[in-house]
Amino acid sequence: MAVETKQHYLLGSVKNALRLLQAFTLDTPERKVTELASSLGLGKSTVCRLLSTLESEGFVMKDPESKRYKLGLSVLQLNTIVNSTLEINRESQPILERLTDETGETAHIAIRDGFSVVYINRTECPSPVEILSHIGRQNPMHCTSSGKVLLAYDRNGWVDRYLEKGLKSYTKKTVTDAKKLRETLKSVHENGYDVSNGEFIEGVTSISAPIRNYLGQVVYAVSVVGPTNRMKASESGIIYKVKKAAHDISERIGYWKRT
C-alpha cells in the first residue's frame, strides 16, 4: 500500500521532463527532438511540449540554425547551489588541491549511487588525460579504485547485490570473477587503499582511500588518477599521500579515531 501511495503522487510529466534533462550528456550535449523522442520512448509532440516548457524556464536552449537543444543556464545555477551545500566539497577542496600539487595528477571525491560510483568533486592536473571522471560521471564500481574502496567498507550487503548483476569486462585486466573480487575487497579493507591499474581504461591508473564521516562510516572515497606510465614511477609515494588526504578530509568532516 505504501508503494502504491508513493507511486500515486508521482507526476508523469515531471518525471518525463527530468528524464529529458538527463538525456543530455558530455557525449551528447546537443540533441534533436527526434533523437530525444526515440531515446526516451516518447511521442514527438510530447517531447516538443516538454522542451518548450523547459526552454521557457531556462533549462534548455535551442540553436536556431541546427535546431538542436542543449542544457540552459538554469541547470548551471542549480549545480552551483548543490555544490555550495555539499559539506564534503567545501571541506575536501583544499585537500584535493594539495593532493594534485603533490602528485601532479587529477584528484577526486567519489560517492556510491546505486550500483555506480559518482564523482562529486575534482581538481585537475596541468596535464590531464581523458579518464572519464568528470563531476557527475557514473562509473562501475568493480574496476575503479574508488568503487572498490566503497564496496570494501560496505556494511549493508551491497557487495552481494552488486555481484548478483554480474561483473562486466572493460579491459583485459578487469576482474570478472566474483570470488577474486571478494578477495580483492578484503585486501582493500585490510590495507586501507586500492590501486586500479588499467581495469576500467587501458593505460590509466587510479589510487583511492576511504573517507570516514563523524560516525566512522566510509561514505566517500578520495582518489588520484593519471596515466599508468606516470603513476607507476611514484606509486608508493602516491599511496601515502592519498591515504593522508583521506585522513585529513575525514577529520575535517568530523571523524576522530577512538582509542
From TrEMBL:
Pfam families found in the cross-reference section: HTH_IclR, IclR_C
Domain IclR-ED: 74-255
Domain HTH iclR-type: 11-73
PROSITE patterns: HTH_ICLR, ICLR_ED
InterPro entries linked: GAF-like_dom_sf (IPR029016), HTH_MetabolicPath_Reg (IPR050707), Tscrpt_reg_IclR_C (IPR014757), Tscrpt_reg_IclR_N (IPR005471), WH-like_DNA-bd_sf (IPR036388), WH_DNA-bd_sf (IPR036390)
Keywords assigned by UniProt, alphabetized: DNA-binding, Transcription, Transcription regulation
Protein name: Glycerol operon regulatory protein
Source lineage: Bacteria, Bacillati, Bacillota, Bacilli, Bacillales
